[in-house]
Design a protein that fits this description.
This protein has helices spanning about 15-30, 45, 55-70, 85-95, 100-105, 110-115, 125-140, 150-170, 215-220, 240-250, 255-260, 265-295, 295-325, and strands at about 1-10, 35-40, 75-80, 145, 175-180. It has two domains: about 1-185 and about 295-325, Rossmann fold (3-Layer(aba) Sandwich); about 205-290, Tyrosyl-Transfer RNA Synthetase (Orthogonal Bundle), CATH 1.10.240.10. The protein is mainly α. Bound molecules: tryptophanyl-5'AMP. Tryptophanyl-5'AMP binds next to strand 1, helix 1 and helix 7.
Length: about 325
């Protein structure tokens, strides 16, 4: 039996980067026999940057509804809210004593975010983010953590923390490993292919799951490309390679087949077709999403049941940890 655990922050609207890099894979891999899946909404991580409480609560439910929309099935996966399981905060404090400031200071995400957020935004919570994340996965004895490339460093640190704890106190945590989507572990920005697509960058650089068809088509038309006008995948063509990846993910076609299909076309046609393809798929998903989102009773039931199932496992692990440390 394998345990699969991963989370997503309700800190903004979801992009196709979140979808292709993480959520789609979560849904697709639920059918592997013997896997136990836990997917949660990381609202405690979200508050490492300022949030409007009303909006945060709404977005938490939005994400739960999106998980159901993309096919995460509550009969196959436990869907829960991080803040509703007190063990997440509790274990974070304990694990803080198994990691150094030096190790946390080396985290790329911390360096990037603290640089961008100015002195007032350099909160201790932002620094401690990876430790909360380690607790998220160690509580459940996770084997695999399906994430995008940007989170791999954090999962590596979770391994270090778990190993250190186990060495000092005997076998307590399973050692998790990050697993990446083969093709789309890093969807890049449409304006700058050297940066990941992210909701915290400028509006034209990302596609939101909730974007209107016209907006999607316009954003793809404006996507920055080189001047070669040749549709081919390769290291020296990061912009077109990114668009080919997105095309392939949304169409289910192989990249080589798409290259072949467009060998006599220029970027204009390719970008228009890509926009229409993604707009079409996302409008179908949006229709389903609004149905699911409007059924608040069902949504609440799914979450209550998920919280309860996750809570049982998390508190068992918490008891073991406290026992090991003489804290019980
Ligand atoms: P968040 O909400 O920032 O991202 C959620 C997931 O989406 C992936 N992702 C991408 N993948 C490919 N291309 C992109 N452009 C892109 N943008 C985002 C992220 O890698 C992530 O897998 N810290 C986590 C949330 C979290 C978590 C955890 C994950 C909290 N605790 C424990 C795993 C295990 C995060 O980045 O969320």
């Amino acid at each position: 039996m394998k345990r699969i655990v991963s989370g997503i922050k309700p800190s903004g609207d979801l992009t196709i980067g979140n979808y292709l890099g993480a959520m789609k894979g979560w849904a697709d891999n639920q059918f592997d026999k013997g896997n136990e899946n836990f997917f949660f909404i990381a609202n405690l991580h979200a508050i490492t940057v300022k949030q409007d409480p009303v909006l945060l609560k709404k977005r938490t439910l939005d994400i739960a509804a999106w998980l159901l929309t993309v096919g995460v099935d509550p009969n196959r996966s436990v869907i829960f809210i991080q803040s509703m399981i007190p063990a997440h905060s509790e274990i974070c404090w304990i694990l803080n004593n198994y990691v150094t400031m030096g190790e946390l200071g080396k985290m790329t995400q911390y360096k990037d975010k603290s640089q961008k957020s100015g002195k007032e935004g350099q909160l201790a919570g932002l620094f401690d983010y990876p430790v909360l994340m380690a607790g998220d996965v160690l509580l459940y004895d996770a084997d695999e953590i399906p994430v995008g490339v940007d989170q791999v460093q954090h999962v590596e640190l979770s391994r270090t923390i778990a190993q250190r704890f186990n060495n000092q106190h005997g076998e307590t945590f399973r050692i998790p490993k990050a697993t990446l989507s083969k093709t789309s572990a890093k969807i890049m920005s449409l304006s700058n292919a050297s940066e990941k697509m992210s909701k915290s960058e400028s509006g034209d650089s990302y596609i939101l799951l909730e974007d209107e068809p016209d907006t999607i088509i316009r954003k793809f038309k404006r996507a920055v490309t080189d001047s070669e006008n040749k549709i081919s995948y390769g290291k020296d063509k990061p912009e077109i390679s990114n668009l080919l990846t997105i095309y392939s993910e949304f169409s289910g076609k192989k990249i080589a087949d798409i290259e072949n299909e467009y060998k006599d076309s220029g970027y204009g046609k390719f970008k228009t077709d890509l926009g229409e393809l993604v707009a079409g798929k996302l409008s179908e998903l949006q229709k389903l999403y609004f149905e699911i989102r409007n059924d608040e009773v069902r949504l609440a039931n799914v979450i209550t049941e998920g919280n309860s199932n996750a809570g049982i496992i998390a508190s068992e692990k918490m008891s073991l940890v406290k026992e090991k440390l003489g804290l019980h």
